[in-house]
Amino acid sequence: MANKSRNIELTQVTQWEDGKATRVEDYLAAEEPLEMRAGRYSLGVTLRTPGDDEELVAGFLFTEGIISRREDLVALRMPGDTDAERNLVRVTLDPNVRLRASSAARRFSAGSACGVCGKASITELRRRGLRRPTAASLFDPEMLCQLPPKLRETQAVFVRTGGLHAAALFAPTGELLVLREDIGRHNAVDKAIGWALLGGCVPLSGHVLLVSGRGGFEIVQKTIAAGIPLLASVSAPSSLAVQLARELGLTLVGFLRGRRFVIYSGEERIAVPASAAAGAS
To answer: Is residue 80 one of the residues assigned to a domain?
Structure first.
C-alpha cells in the first residue's frame, strides 16, 4: 500500500491574530498526480492525496465503467518509491476486458475538485446501462442522523489540515465500515468503493454512502454504479445530481446535519410518516 505519511506536508506560514504576526508551522493536505496504466495504455491521471492508491484505482476503474466486476482486475502494482514511479499504478486486467480507443484509452485528466470534467451527461450514463439500486432497503431517519458525527470523529487527516473531503460507507444498521479521505471528494468516494470492490463486497445493497461535501453528479453516478441505494451529504446536491438520482432510483439526502435532512429523491426508502412523504411530493 502507498505510504500514508505522504498525505500530510509540513510548512512554515505567517499567522496574523489580534494585531500580532507570528511564524508558525502548519499542516497541509498533500496533492500529487496519480497515473493509471494498463500495458501501453494510460487509463487516466488524477490529482489526489497519496494513500490508499490501490483502492482509488480499483474504485475509479469500476465506477467509470472500465471494469464491471472484481474479477476483471487481476493485479495492481506500484513500481517503486522514486519520484517518477511513486505516482504510478500499473494495472493488469483480465484478457476479456477490451480497451476501446474511445473509453479505456481515453486518457482522463481529472482535477482534484471536479472529477472527470466534461463527463456530466445523463445520456452517456444511459448508454452504460447502470442498474437501479435495489428497492428493498428501508432506512431509519434516527439512524441517518447519527452518521455525520461518526464521520467527523474518524476524519484523522482533516483534523490536522482542515483541507480534506471524506466518504464513508455504513452498514444498514449504521455501523461505520470504512472511511477514506482525499483532497477530491470524488477520489474519496472511489477509495471507499474500491475498498469494497477489492474485498468482494460489491454491489453494496442496503448500504449508505455519506460524503462530507456536496452531492454532485459524479458522486451520484459512482454511488449508483456500486449498487448503493442511499447517498447522503452534509451539504446540498446539484440540479443534475438530483435529476440523475430521480431517473435511476437513488435515494438522495442533503443537508444531513443534527436532526434535520432533506430528501431529494427516493423517499420511499426512508421510514418517514406516509402523510409527511405525501406532503413533500
So the answer is: no
